[in-house]
Amino acid sequence: MTAQYTMLTLLRQATFLTSAPRLSACPPTIVYEAAFAGRSNAGKSSAINTLTNQRQLARASKTPGRTQLLNYFSLDEERCLVDLPGYGYAAVPLAVKEAWQKELENYLLKRDSLQGLIVLMDIRHPLQKYDEMLLNWAQKRNLRVHILLTKADKLNRSPALAALQSMQKQLKEKDIVATVQLFSALRRIGLEEAAQVLGEWLNYPPAAVELAEEVSAPIVEGELTNETKDI
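The structure assignment produced for this chain is given below.
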């Protein structure tokens, strides 16, 4: 499978497009976009860089929580990824935090081209207060949500799978509709599953989300399984 144009191939073409401070400044011509959101230090920038196979496409701020911009990365003329600022960082002044939360809610509820939300949570500290707030906003709009439990390499196989199952249970108990998977930027765990979700959201042909051999990472014996689970 060497000539096939895959979703991961498209992701590797990502280039910075623009930064928008608010909904009204977002690019008007984008047809399909998928947004990435997560608490500060949840591994959002690392996930975007790994999926696009670029080291510094998404840059983490030296002062977490201070950059209040929606960063757009173009995949082609119609499709974009959007890197939302990290949330929940205590050092941000309350007034700034509240203003950004309002802008974030406005974006999630009113951005017509937004097809789905990737929410990143550290597998060791999932479903914190701001995570749940974000998921509830997505529920209001019936927005598709896919959760990446990041830094899965920090846990052994059994604890990681137990964390995945616990997350599934909590989402059901809270009546939150989402899919969830294990992910590690360091070990490149879960790239195929995440790319498939993005391909479906961004209206990319189903055949194109298959992983080509040239971008496939070797599987280490005993490595975590990465099935995407429907909640």
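Interim note for the steering committee: The chain is about 30% helix and 20% strand. Strands lie at 15-20, 32-38, 70-74, 79-83, 114-122, 144-150, 179-182, 229-230.
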